[in-house]
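A note on notation is needed here, since sequence and fold are reported together in a single record. The reader may check this reading against the record printed directly beneath this paragraph.
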Amino acid sequence: MDRHESRIRFCVILLHYIALPNRPIRLSLNTSKETVVLRRVALIIETSRSYGRDLLSGVKRYAAEQASWSMFVELRDLESEPPPWLRNWDGDGILTRSGNPAIERAVTQVGVPTVELRSSRLAKRFPFVGVDNHAVGKLAASHFLELGYEHFGIYRLDTEQFFIDRRNSFVDHLRAAGFACEEFHQSGATEKPSQWERQQARLCQWIQQLPKPAAILACTDQLGCWLLDACRRADVRVPEQIAVVGVENDETLTTISTPTLSSVQLDGHRIGYQASRLLDRMMSGGKPRTTPLLVPPIGVVTRQSSDIVATSDPLLAAAIRFIRQHACEGIRIANVLEAVPLSRSQLERGCRELLQRSPNQEINRIRIQAAKELLRDTELSIEGIAERSGFTTQQYFVQLFKKHCGMTATAYRRSIREPMTQ
């Protein structure tokens, strides 16, 4: 087949597929070297939220790098009913986030290899790839502890096991550090105005009785928005009296709230990629996983709702804020003391009492965190990352990074980018 005939054949195949999107045919693209089977994969994943779109982005990256897939996806919400076309769909595999039992039943009836990305509670028949929610709770607790808080709360849900895991991990991590945690349980419907007002009144009452300053984890960004609304109603200042962190980092919810909401960033891209990798293996005859594959969160995206240091000493707070804003600019302790009227001994003593580390250790902690983000998100050289993170020499950066992280910077970059062990 010459190049002209090959182009004509490809156009005919493409037009045939576009004309019949709900019943795609099995395609083999013949080349001079090999025959590539184009597998048909349905994506039953919500597009209405940032996390769902991140999952789809990870799926797209896997398909572009590793597989030949014809993917069918449509605009949908997490609670949407099963798409009508799924009943007669003749495909090869499914990636699904089962928001209700109807989705689970419909997907099961198709009878093709399937990977679940939301919860193993509904889709017990399918292997599961999703969020490590124990790591979510621990990360949020560590974030608040690093800010110096001693009073804590959690706005929790019990409707899914992953919400329970977040709560348990958050409370357990605080308890291990010697702190208790107050809890507010979200219960009951909120669809009617009267139900919403009763809930917000209960939430206001709970917020007012908390010792302050306090730090609260909301188990979802939606709960975080409701919590910030209750703080405004109760005339409780955020973040001065109450700091709030949500979970998921949904772009709409975190930015529409007042003030803007800090949130735990889930690694939807990596979850989508790993789920695609597992599905591809299953469609090739491989065995499904028998245990969940859990992916840890990326980190806390700090916005106005937790952008504060929990201390009554305004000069110490200003000094720590200066460190966190300028650590990657190569500052020294002398620069901090020039910016804030504190003595070196006051700064040293205050940091050790509040953060359990010295000012210099805090500077290095911020720099290492920045370096980890650059290793994950950029192609900068190790030398470039050391410079961008505020280190004076590459050698010192390499030594300190290995001391803090237990591996070299190069090994860390490889571990965060390479596919996880299946």
In short: The longest helix spans residues 359-377. The domain at 3-130+269-292 is CATH 3.40.50.2300 (Rossmann fold).
